[in-house]
Amino acid sequence: MTHPKRRTGGIRWWLSGLFKLFLVALVALGALAVYLDEQIQERFSGRRWAIPAKVYARPLELFAGQKLSQQDFLTELDALGYRREKTLNGPGEVVINGNQVELHTRGFQFFEGTEPSLRLKLRFSGNYLSHLTDHQGKDLAVARLDPLTIGGIYPAHNEDRILINIDQTPAYLIETLVAVEDRDFFEHFGVSPKGIVRALWVNTSSGKLVQGGSTLTQQLVKNFYLSNERTLSRKLTEAMMAVLLEVHYSKREILEGYFNEVFMGQDGNRAIHGFGLASHYFFNIPLAELKLHQIALLVGMVKGPTYYNPRRNPERALQRRNLVLDLLAEQKIVTLEQAEQAKQQPLGVTRSGSLANTSFPAFLDLVKRQLRQDYREEDLTEEGLRVFTSFDPLLQIKAEQSVTEVLGRFKWKGHEELEGAMAVTNPETGEVLALVGGREAGFAGFNRALDAVRPIGSLVKPAIFLTALEQPNRYSLTTALPDQAFSIKDGTGQLWQPQNYDRREHGSVYLYKALANSYNLSTAKMGLDLGVPNVLKTIKRLGVDRDWPAYPSVLLGAGALTPMEVTSMYQTLANGGFNTQPRGIRSVLTARSEPLKRYPFQVEQRFDAGAVYLTQYAMQRVMTEGTARAAYNRLPRNLTLAGKTGTTNDSRDSWFAGFSQDLLAVVWLGRDDNGKTPLTGGTGALPVWVEFMRKANPLPLSTPMPDNIVEAWIDPQTGLSTTADCPNAQKIPYIRGSEPMFGGCGPVYDTAPSTAPSAPGDDPIQDWLKEWTQQQQ
Amino acid sequence: MGINKQWVLLVAGLALLQGCASTNRDAIPVTEAGRPVEASGRIPTQTTSNTTAQPKYTQPSAPVQDSGVVVMVPQGNNPPLQVGSAAANAGISVNPPPVWNTPSAITTTPTIPPSAPTMPTAPARPLDTASVLAADEQLDGPVLALLTTAQQLQGNGDLNGAASSLERAQRIAPREPQVLYRLALIRLNQGDAAQAEQLSRRALSYAAGRPALQAGLWDLIAQAREKQGDPAGAAQARQRAKVSL
């Protein structure tokens, strides 16, 4: 190989210059490549997205014997997006056959382990789930559904997404995306000259903008790393990065990144990113359960998520979807038949984004406050934490309905101004189950359940009675109290003259009756005898963290609390004297489902169980014969309940707090401007509470009798102990040793059966007694 | 030479650059470690529920007895007792509440197999036998299953998971003292003696008519008090433990 030296010096110089320039450019390009490469790797291999924390409702537990009506169960399934089918073909489907329900659960990762996806058979009977078996008919002890997502913790403006794994994508999703957006995806190296040419050809020949020229890789790079400007240099950088991305990562990894990154719509301040969230947002089902027509819609939307928004522009979206389906048939990804069948389907989007933050704002507010005590804001908005709560959507709906229904009945002038709040807990676990922050429960705003601080009126009285009943040597349920007018100097030197609601004196009354009928005179007098500071101590021990001045007016409820604080107080009464702070959060997991924090059940015995037992007894009499007796017009007589009404001056606040065995509910009604209403606790808050209990079907209160309690037959005429066969004897509980002396059997009354239908069950003596006690009011 | 040589250099340079930029795709550990597990928490679903897809919470394959459960009295010298759970009705309710074990539910109650067959040789105290769910009470269905799960989690050293599982059982049967007893045991193991005592006290209020369990609870309170530096209170509780039996 020889070369004749024929070149001139000029050419040689020119060539050598070009070569040097070329080398410089090459080095510069190399440096750029190295820089871009670093960028790509840093972003793609690290934590790629800021994920807002997700808040979940309680998962619905399933077991034979559970109190759960079929209707409630189906409501829950609907909320979770289970589809009613004729046969079960996969997770998220349910088949209903009379009182039998078969479903295929989705499985879920909980704090203490994984709940597998299972095929279950359930049978309902009355308000109970009577049978739970697996698909082969074998009894199953317990299973739980996936929990409803009730919201997220978002910064003011942000992107939201549910990360998905490429292995969990449904059939046709990848094929459809590739067919529509980038046919050569699996062949090209990041950029596709062939694709550009074809796109040009298809678009010009069809006259429509069907295909874009950039590859999926380029689109991902653009969304991921680059600004939106349209310059040649950006286009070149994009191409280079796309090639580099392809060098480092597999096609599946790039696809996964794409599925998680792509913008799919805007929900208020929240940008919906990724197919995982889009699937929930538009169809209320997990991605893995999408069918062909739904996949076609989502993939079609990629081109213009706002333009093709199926909620706002359904016709455009439908057209686009069908175009995608045609394309799939054309490319033989699906058969013509399949495509035609899918085209027959309606769009099938849910009415509104079911993940919207606004569904249950009051409870979410409670959760956020707790979380903000324990986590930094950026951890909540970026780390993808998974927050499990005790929220019960079924009870929440019932609570909201109760407020709306009862408030809707009021027709007096100014009734529109009436507001309401409600808190529901399980007193035995201390878990908050539902929270209503206002009459329009779906709207975020002033959360009255947590923030409306209002005088509690007679709701304070159980604390006074509990203070008394803790001293069995001084007080029992049948201690006679004088219900007479009196006046004393209060803490500010003014004269304090309490009055009864009916402005009358009731003479000598039994202690329990003073509570049942909410007599102010006898109660205030007893409170003064006990000492206001002692009553305040009781209130603190019940779980209220307030420093009220020790004025006598506190005895009649001048102190102000939020509904949630009242809940905390009554929880101790409902839970046998064991204090449990209301909890809304159960546990927190990291984005990768690693346990992070638990909010455990904690109790502290604050009161003698016997004294609380007696207080509960008096609160039961509130329901059966006292200020809340109207409750049993709507509720079954054999449903034992305990509670207390509360009304403040000029009826500015209407309260009711009460509990069954498994449900404690506190209701407040009033005006935000603290104006007058015509309501008492019994005519305002009580009906809401009763309506809720009627819907919730609670278990009757049945507190186990403490060791130090004995029951004695009492002659109500004398207040002395008697025998069971004494015609008007009444069984009353006492702390052992405090029961009254034996006094024989009092004067015999005419025991003609009462005509009043208001008595419980088949006990004529009790019926008669009730009649008798009601005549005394 | 000239052009050709330059081309060779160029090619070599390009090759070098390529070598820097590219790496073996398979060798990069990028997303294996960093791959986000699906944030929604959904797990891969099993479309067919064959035997491998059995739930975690099925009942243990234990010897099933026909009726009731044999009480295992810690001392071991008493004959086994049959214990009912009638105590719950001692209150003032008009109607006993419907409980979760409806007649249609599970009719036979399996005992949980002791994981250590040699258990009775040690002087039995509830804490010693904590790893063996002393099946001294009538439990069934969901509660038994969840207690078993808790037992397994505790055995693996996952006390938080066990407590979580027990609280699940508590939500299903808030008045089952056995559940609170287990919870108290875990708290004691976690070093929270005060809560261990409080939970035991709550359990006692539901344990009427169940002397073996009462004794166990008092014993637990004694240990909790000892850990809280209250030997006198502990002695008192020990006394109650003896009385209960």
From TrEMBL, chain A:
A GO-annotated cellular component: plasma membrane
Known pathway: Cell wall biogenesis; peptidoglycan biosynthesis
Catalytic residues in the record: 181, 458
Reactions this protein catalyses: Preferential cleavage: (Ac)2-L-Lys-D-Ala-|-D-Ala. Also transpeptidation of peptidyl-alanyl moieties that are N-acyl substituents of D-alanine; [GlcNAc-(1->4)-Mur2Ac(oyl-L-Ala-gamma-D-Glu-L-Lys-D-Ala-D-Ala)](n)-di-trans,octa-cis-undecaprenyl diphosphate + beta-D-GlcNAc-(1->4)-Mur2Ac(oyl-L-Ala-gamma-D-Glu-L-Lys-D-Ala-D-Ala)-di-trans,octa-cis-undecaprenyl diphosphate = [GlcNAc-(1->4)-Mur2Ac(oyl-L-Ala-gamma-D-Glu-L-Lys-D-Ala-D-Ala)](n+1)-di-trans,octa-cis-undecaprenyl diphosphate + di-trans,octa-cis-undecaprenyl diphosphate + H(+)
Pfam family, one: Transpeptidase
Superkingdom in the source lineage: Bacteria
Family in the record: In the C-terminal section; belongs to the transpeptidase family.
This protein's name: Penicillin-binding protein 1B
Native source species: Azomonas agilis
Source taxonomy: Bacteria, Pseudomonadati, Pseudomonadota, Gammaproteobacteria, Pseudomonadales
Automatic annotation (TrEMBL), chain B:
Highest rank taxon of the organism: Bacteria
Organism listed in the record: Azomonas agilis
Region ranges (Disordered): 32-62
The protein's name in its UniProt record: Uncharacterized protein
Segments of skewed composition (Polar residues): 43-62
